[in-house]
Amino acid sequence: MAESIANGERRSSLHGHWSSRVAFILAVTGSAVGLGNIWKFPYMAGVNGGGAFVLIYLGCVLIVGLPIMMAEIMIGRRGRRNPVATMQILGEEEAGQTAWGLVGLMGVMAGFIILSFYSVIAGWTVAYTFKAAANEFAQQDAATLSAAFGAFVANPLITGAWHTLFMAVTVSLVALGVERGLEKAVRLMVPALLVLLGYAINSGSFGAGVEFLFRPDFSKVSGAMVLAAMGQAFFTLSVGMGAIMAYGAYLPQEASIAQTSIAVVLADTSIAILAGLVIFPIVFANGLDPAEGPGLIFQTLPLAFGQLPGGSVFGTLFFVLLAFAALTSAISLMEPAVAWMVESRRLSRPVSAVIVGIIIWLLGFLTVLSFSNLKDFKFLKGTLFDNFDYLTSNLMLPLGGLLITVFAGWVMCGNSSSDELDPAAGYVYRTWHFLTRYVAPVAVVLVFLNAIGVFEP
Ligand code: PHE
Q1: What angle do CA 29, 103, 14 make, to 5 degrees?
Q2: Sign of CA dihedral 263, 209, 34, 291
Q3: How many Å lie between the centroid of ligand 1 and the Cα of residue 238?
Q4: Which of 109, 162, 119, 25 is nearest to 326 (CA)?
Q5: Any idea where the domains of the chain sit in the sequence?
Q6: Which of 88, 229, 332, 418 could form a disulfide with 101 if both were Cys (CB 3.0 to 4.6 A apart)?
Q7: Under CATH, which number does the domain 3-451 receive?
Q8: CA of 36 to the centre of ligand 1 (A)
């Protein structure tokens, strides 16, 4: 089997290809940029004490996330199947080991769990679109807006309904195979954030926000915090679960994987930092708690919209953009599972999307209830969402990423990976190969060991 590839024959995808390199970059950016940048990054940075977390997160993006993104695209394009089949086929071809398919299967499961809570939070942003449009934030103070958020998430009927709507739209788009056009939201996100940045600069606490975000306080570093920073790097780049691998399967052969990955990582990282620069000045200017948790942007941004001239229109637009950015990420979270069902169960794309969507939709109610105030479900409160998030971001994605680097760096022969990544085998390939063989896997293992207290630097 290996020969046919070495002879220059290539597999082709069963789902068609991206029309161009730009279409692919937009799709991967659409997957990467989402709630992870605007919602999760600021609240995680807040909970973990700011600067030191941000620094470690940036380091993980560069030396772990970027090489894994390149590895995923490379593996996806070589296999040209869904992540389960791709890992199986390449494992067989390169080493006679089909068990690598399990890495793809773990990714499919991670996608189910992540999307189950992701959709609930995306539902909050849709709801907040309507609150902004109804001018509910005008001239409200921090305490009122915090209380309003608390009352909103406490009602499982309402949050459940928005979650249902978001899943219905996601499933419809995946079923129809729609992707083009949606990514415009990501491009508009940057100008929208810049307007908010202007507000943050004038809030009187911009300096305090910048200091919180960029001055590292190393006394805040702990094993758990480093693991959280690494988990955030995986989550925000969409790596470690096969979403990028699934997209790589549709990438035209001639596109440069390194350039594409660097462009995506730069865009994703700048948007997260920009979001942090907007949120923390508002936090400090209004005496809010940076360690507020998952509700942070829903308590701070409405303050800005309530005070900005034209804030109702602008706030509506902002939450719409955020919901669209979440939608392009949600689509990519379903892609490994849907492509896998289409290819292996011979189901149509719409049927697969509906089956996958229903399972995720039902699972999402556990997150809805874990934020709610229902008496009978008190035992779920706060815990389930945290556990789902921890299980996926801190365990499944890094473990998947570790196995992907071991596969790309050690199991695949150098000829296959250089052929795919950089046939001239120049310094780009050599740097990637070094990071993928040594740096990334060792870093992930050390962070794991450090988090369970086995190893302390
Ligand atoms: N990267 C997306 C975000 O930041 C979330 C995501 C994670 C998407 C994993 C796909 C896979 O919002």
Answers
A1: 60
A2: positive
A3: 4
A4: 119
A5: 3-451
A6: 88
A7: 1.20.1740
A8: 6
